[in-house]
């Protein structure tokens, strides 16, 4: 599935929710179902700044694709991170760099995030794209 | 419902709005209080009818603006019971007032090996200016420890004084926990050791009367926006004998008396510390906020806030899995709490959706949070315009958080 397909799928899922509580319940479920990140990756160099809660984002580059894994000490944040992993993980650096991220506006998540919180979200996306840029540069160098 | 309270709530236009389709319950008063219409109107009216640069202007409006600006200074001086309005310096707020003292007092009186005392309860704004001064001057920062309940260890303070101690800076009321510090005792101990005291009064002026002469503090720093006035203005009270001995903080504008390319002489107090065109409109707004508070009267403010603190403490502590952080015997109307196994960010997100505004995080007191072994709290800070019904809604939203995350 392309990044665009996954985004459309998520937009579709969110369109079914009638109120904010449904969205939060969904995010909480997603947060609880995020696979556990090994403690060895919960290190300061994986910490994303700009979030009220701590978020660790780990990445691996395998067969030309980036695999993301993450954790947070807040459940809603974990839910958001889980969505981002679903969108961006297992894609090539080029696909990730070129991806549009406006879907967050469409699913109405940003309306419910204060600037500091949406800054945290933007920091996560920025970090995902930075990883992609770094792997792309690495790939070009080889 | 209390008709006086209804009337007071109607003075605040912002309280009439909804948040996510529910009536707004605003419990972030320790971050900033809301503004009564008379403050908003005074600022509006100033720009519509009297805007002019102050001091030295010969024209009518400049003189009106100067009278209004200096009138606001007189109101602040009287509100704090300073001995003269020359002891009131307008700043952008508490942080700038503390930076002013750290910079100017530090320049004149702090040297290598000297010591500065702060407390473990401080806001970053009353730590970092002193810490950076100490780095610059090779001085030493000492810290009054805090007990688990949020009270300062005053016995430990005794052993911190020595012949090298130059100044002590402590908050009047803790922004994170609400502790009202025993400032008179601290000031007495400091003065016995010949040490001047700066009080961070950011939280100190909205809950009850402050008399700087009776307290005896040497400096008192405050912000208008936490006492129902506008943002961007605040001030420093300083004893004249200290302010006279301190060099200016910034240079240019009204703070100057005479300039040649060879030398400059500086204006007298308080202008010596007010470089550049001042924030006239907001100073006037601050004066009107003082009028407003005096109109309501401290009896009402204290009675209402004490009731909300007692009611909120009882209701919040009764929720299973919730622990109040900061249980000092003397507290302002601030309740900080944590929830078992639930991150404050998760809790705050849901509480927000219920139309209740609280603050979550470390409240700019990271060393205090480290000391208490937590990352942050959920903080509800009450004003006299809040109601028991609003606290009930906070409690409902906390119960909802538990349902969602347990």
Quick rundown:
Chain A has helices spanning 3-15, 20-32, 75-88, 93-98, 103-106, 115-141; strands at 55-62, 65-72. Chain A has 142 residues and is mainly α.
Q: Quaternary state, please?
A: heterodimer
The CATH class of the largest domain in chain B turns out to be Alpha Beta
The SSE order of chain A reads: HHEEHHHH
Distance between the termini of chain B: 35 Å
The low-confidence parts of chain B are none
Main interface by residue count? A-B, 16 and 17 residues
Number of helices of chain B: 14
Number of domains of chain A: 1
CATH architecture of the largest domain in chain B: 3-Layer(aba) Sandwich
Which fold name is given in CATH as the topology of chain A?
Sufe protein. Chain: A
Spatially, the strands of the biggest sheet of chain A line up as 1-2
Strand content of chain A: 5-15%
Number of strands of chain A: 2
Protein architecture, described:
The complex is a heterodimer of chains A (142) and B (406). Chain A is mainly alpha-helical and 142 residues long. Chain A has one domain (3-141): Sufe protein. Chain: A, CATH 3.90.1010. Chain A has 6 helices and 2 strands, in the order H-H-E-E-H-H-H-H. Chain A has helices at residues 3-15, 20-32, 75-88, 93-98, 103-106, 115-141; strands at 55-62, 65-72. In chain A, strands 1-2 form a two-stranded antiparallel ribbon. In chain A, a hairpin with a 2-residue loop joins strand 1 and strand 2 (65-72). In chain A, helix 1 packs across helix 3 (75-88), helix 2 packs across helix 3 (75-88) and helix 3 (75-88) packs parallel to helix 6. In chain A, 33% of the residues are buried. The mean pLDDT of chain A is 86. With 406 residues, chain B is an alpha/beta fold. Chain B folds into 2 domains: 3-30 and 297-405, Aspartate Aminotransferase, domain 1 (Alpha-Beta Complex), CATH 3.90.1150.10; 41-294, 3-Layer(aba) Sandwich (Aspartate Aminotransferase, domain 2), CATH 3.40.640.10. Helices cover 41% and strands 17% of the residues of chain B. Chain B has 14 helices and 17 strands. Chain B has helices spanning 3-10, 37-50, 60-80, 94-109, 128-137, 154-158, 183-192, 212-215, 240-245, 280-296, 298-317, 344-353, 366-372, 388-405, and strands spanning 18-19, 22-23, 25-26, 88-91, 115-119, 140-144, 165-171, 197-200, 219-223, 234-238, 256-259, 264-266, 322-325, 334-339, 356-357, 359-361, 377-381. In chain B, strands 4-10-9-8-7-5-6 form a 7-stranded mixed beta sheet, with helices on both faces. In chain B, strands 13-14-17-16 form a 4-stranded antiparallel beta sheet, with helices on one face. In chain B, helix 8 links the parallel strand 8 and strand 9. In chain B, helix 2 (37-50) packs antiparallel against helix 10 (280-296) and helix 4 (94-109) runs parallel beside helix 5 (128-137). The two termini of chain B are 35 Å apart. Classes of the chains: A mainly alpha (142), B alpha/beta (406).
């Amino acid at each position: 599935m392309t990044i665009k397909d996954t985004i459309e799928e998520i937009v579709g899922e969110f369109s079914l929710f009638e109120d904010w509580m449904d969205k939060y319940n969904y995010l909480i479920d997603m947060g609880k179902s995020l696979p556990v990140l090994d403690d060895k990756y919960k290190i300061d160099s994986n910490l994303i700044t700009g979030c009220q809660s701590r978020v660790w984002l780990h990445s691996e580059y395998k067969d030309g694709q980036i695999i993301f894994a993450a954790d947070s000490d807040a459940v809603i944040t974990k839910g958001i991170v889980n969505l981002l992993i679903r969108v961006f993980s297992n894609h090539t650096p080029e696909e990730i760099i070129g991806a549009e991220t406006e879907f967050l506006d469409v699913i109405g998540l940003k309306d419910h995030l204060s600037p500091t919180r949406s800054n945290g979200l933007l920091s996560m996306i920025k970090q995902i794209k930075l990883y992609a840029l770094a792997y792309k540069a690495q790939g070009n160098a080889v | 419902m209390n008709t006086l309270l209804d009337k007071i709530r109607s003075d605040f236009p912002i309280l009439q709005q909804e948040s996510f389709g529910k009536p707004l319950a605003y419990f972030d008063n320790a971050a900033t209080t809301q503004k009564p219409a008379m403050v908003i109107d005074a600022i509006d009216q100033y720009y519509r009818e009297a805007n002019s640069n102050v001091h030295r202007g010969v024209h009518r409006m400049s003189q009106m603006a100067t009278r209004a600006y200096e009138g606001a200074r007189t109101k602040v001086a009287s509100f704090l019971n300073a001995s003269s309005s020359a002891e009131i310096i307008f700043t952008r707020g508490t942080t700038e007032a503390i930076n002013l003292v750290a910079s100017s007092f530090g320049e004149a009186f702090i040297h290598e090996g000297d010591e500065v005392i702060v407390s473990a309860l401080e806001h970053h704004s009353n730590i970092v200016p002193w810490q950076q001064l100490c780095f610059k001057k090779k001085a030493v920062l000492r810290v009054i420890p805090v007990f688990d309940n949020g009270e300062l260890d005053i016995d430990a303070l005794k052993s911190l004084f020595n012949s090298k101690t130059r100044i002590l800076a402590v908050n009047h009321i803790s922004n994170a926990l609400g502790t009202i510090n025993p400032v008179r005792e601290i000031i007495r101990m400091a003065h016995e050791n010949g040490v001047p005291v700066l009080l961070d009064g950011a939280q100190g002026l909205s809950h009850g009367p402050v008399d700087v002469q009776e307290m005896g503090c040497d400096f008192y720093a405050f912000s208008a926006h936490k006492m129902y006035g506008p943002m961007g203005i605040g001030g420093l009270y300083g004893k004249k004998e200290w302010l006279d001995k301190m060099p200016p903080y910034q240079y240019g504008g009204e703070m100057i008396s005479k300039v040649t390319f060879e030398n400059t002489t500086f204006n007298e107090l308080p202008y010596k510390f007010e470089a550049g065109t001042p924030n006239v409109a907001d100073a006037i707004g601050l004066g009107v906020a003082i009028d407003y508070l005096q109109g309501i009267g401290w009896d009402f403010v204290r009675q209402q806030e004490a009731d909300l603190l007692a009611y909120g403490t009882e209701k919040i502590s009764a929720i299973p899995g919730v622990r109040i952080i900061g249980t000092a015997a003397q507290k302002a109307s601030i309740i900080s709490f944590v929830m078992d196994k639930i991150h404050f960010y998760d809790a705050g997100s849901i509480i927000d959706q219920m139309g209740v505004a609280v603050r979550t995080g470390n409240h700019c007191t990271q060393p205090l949070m480290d000391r208490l072994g937590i990352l942050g709290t959920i903080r509800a800070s009450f004003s006299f315009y809040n109601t028991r019904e609003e606290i009930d809604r906070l409690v409902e939203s906390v119960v909802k958080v538990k349902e969602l995350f347990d």
